[in-house]
Backbone:
């Protein structure tokens, strides 16, 4: 598949800037340490969790931070970096002069985002295991889970990038991503909110992403995971179709 | 060319940034004001419910919102200081940047630096005041915290400008953000009291400028010490920056 060539290109580029990926793991770990030694002491245990057994605050937050890292990594790749290649460097235009098609470009970038989401999640899993925050082998499910999250957000990112008019528009992405990070039960359970807000939060893709990782990370398998898998698969598939079409039009136009 | 002198010409550099700001301020509201307010809401009210239920002795009976509010004010001032001192300074010093144009006028490099820093102080005052206003409405801070916030912003902006004007790679500034600013943000008593840090780290927090800023914003009784640290950083950064600007812009 020729899309693999694009993945290879990204790999070659990251050989020089691998520390960017390192920072992506470093940041959630910092959050985790700060939360573990700091906020965790203030909070104690979280009682309102799937399974009902109280957990350490750090164990509650860790999977949510991984979901956020997978989301941010994927979105960063297909919005910020892709916009540069699309509009500033015009990298894709030179690629299209080769046998590569617009479809290959979209699939290649998405494939790369999934790959990097998987690598980051493996490293993160190793760290939380070392910190003693993992209590069941089900936690291994966070790796395919993070890959699915990366897929859903990478495709969404490609759709978004075709609508951007200039660099300033990036702040609208921030305007959506930051509140989502803060309010999608990353730092506290859903029960903190009044009922109508709970329903609204449950529709957020990051909420589903966090459910997808938090349940297995705490050693629990519930139908909620299935809902999250369906939600993110549907979101990714839908965005993929739109992304390929829109990118084709953007690159042709 | 004596760079030691500073003149009223700094006003012109201020005017340049003011002119730009007048056209683009709408876009900056999101980053500099909405951002910290979202944090205050999510952490102060959301996480606050968990913390207050835990009734931690570390907070001495106060609510988590009262604790985290001034912390987030200082932390956003630090980020403001970094954001204004890193990117724009780096860009302005490059070919095509406004410093290159300004230095061909009667303005000296030290005027350019002073004018830019003055604008950062202006922005920090404006943005911090907006955040503080919301905190005051919730009873989570006192108006005096504005001084702490503005000094914190400058204590970061001045030294980082000195670095940004002389560096050639923007990736280095990103590295400073991720490996210096972020760790400071996490461990300077913004989200939890520094007294909770394990042994040696508890002493190390004295080295964090953000911690001094946070303590000032919380109305610490050691305010004279914290003031002195921040002012020393601003002065040191200013002297270093003046030299770096002269070296870079007259070469």
Residues:
């Amino acid at each position: 598949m020729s899309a693999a060539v694009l993945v290879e290109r990204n790999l070659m580029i990251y050989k020089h800037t691998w520390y960017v990926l390192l920072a992506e793991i470093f940041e959630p770990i910092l959050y985790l340490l700060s939360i573990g030694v700091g906020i965790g002491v203030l909070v104690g245990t979280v009682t309102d969790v799937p399974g009902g057994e109280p957990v350490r605050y750090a164990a509650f937050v860790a999977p949510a931070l991984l979901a956020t890292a997978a989301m941010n990594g994927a979105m960063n790749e297909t919005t910020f970096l892709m916009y540069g290649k699309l509009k500033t460097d015009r990298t894709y235009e030179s690629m299209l002069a080769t046998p590569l098609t617009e479809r290959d470009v979209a699939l290649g970038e998405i494939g790369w985002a999934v790959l990097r989401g998987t690598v980051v999640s493996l490293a993160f899993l190793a760290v939380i295991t070392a910190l003693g925050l993992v209590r069941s082998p089900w936690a291994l499910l966070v790796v395919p889970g993070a890959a699915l999250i990366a897929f859903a957000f990478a495709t969404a990112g490609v759709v978004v990038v075709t609508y951007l008019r200039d660099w300033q528009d990036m702040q609208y992405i921030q305007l959506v991503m930051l509140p989502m990070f803060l309010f999608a039960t990353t730092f506290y359970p859903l029960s903190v909110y009044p009922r109508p807000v709970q329903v609204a939060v449950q529709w957020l893709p990051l909420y589903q992403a966090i459910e997808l990782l938090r349940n297995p990370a705490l050693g629990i398998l519930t139908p909620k995971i299935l809902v999250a898998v369906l939600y993110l698969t549907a979101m990714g598939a839908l965005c993929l179709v739109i992304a390929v079409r829109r990118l084709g039009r953007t690159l042709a136009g | 060319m004596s760079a030691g002198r500073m003149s009223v010409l700094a006003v012109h550099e201020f005017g340049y940034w003011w002119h730009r700001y007048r056209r683009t301020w709408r876009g900056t509201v999101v980053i500099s004001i909405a951002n910290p307010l979202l944090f205050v809401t999510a952490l102060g009210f959301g996480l606050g419910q968990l913390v207050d239920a835990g009734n931690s002795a570390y907070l001495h009976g106060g609510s988590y919102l009262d604790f985290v509010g001034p912390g987030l004010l200082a932390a956003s001032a630090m980020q403001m200081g970094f954001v204004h001192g890193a990117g724009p300074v780096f860009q302005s010093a490059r070919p095509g940047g406004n410093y290159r144009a300004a230095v061909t006028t009667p303005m000296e490099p030290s005027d350019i630096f002073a004018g830019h820093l003055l604008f950062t102080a202006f922005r920090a005052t404006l943005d911090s005041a907006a955040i503080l206003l919301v905190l005051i409405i919730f009873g989570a801070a006192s108006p005096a915290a504005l001084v702490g916030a503005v000094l914190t912003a400058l204590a970061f902006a001045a030294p980082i400008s000195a670095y940004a004007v002389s560096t050639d790679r923007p990736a280095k500034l990103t590295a400073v953000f991720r490996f210096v600013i972020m760790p400071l943000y996490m461990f300077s008593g913004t989200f939890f009291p520094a007294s909770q840090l394990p042994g040696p780290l508890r002493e190390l927090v004295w080295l964090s400028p953000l911690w001094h800023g946070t303590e000032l914003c919380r109305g610490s009784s050691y305010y004279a010490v914290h003031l002195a640290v921040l002012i020393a950083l601003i002065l040191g950064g200013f002297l270093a920056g003046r030299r770096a600007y002269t070296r870079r812009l007259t070469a």
Notes: Chain B touches chain A at residues 27, 30-31, 34-35, 38-39, 41-43, 46-47, 49-51, 54, 56, 58-59, 64, 171, 175, 178-179, 182-183, 186-187, 191-192, 196-198 (CB under 8 Å). The mean pLDDT of chain B is 86.
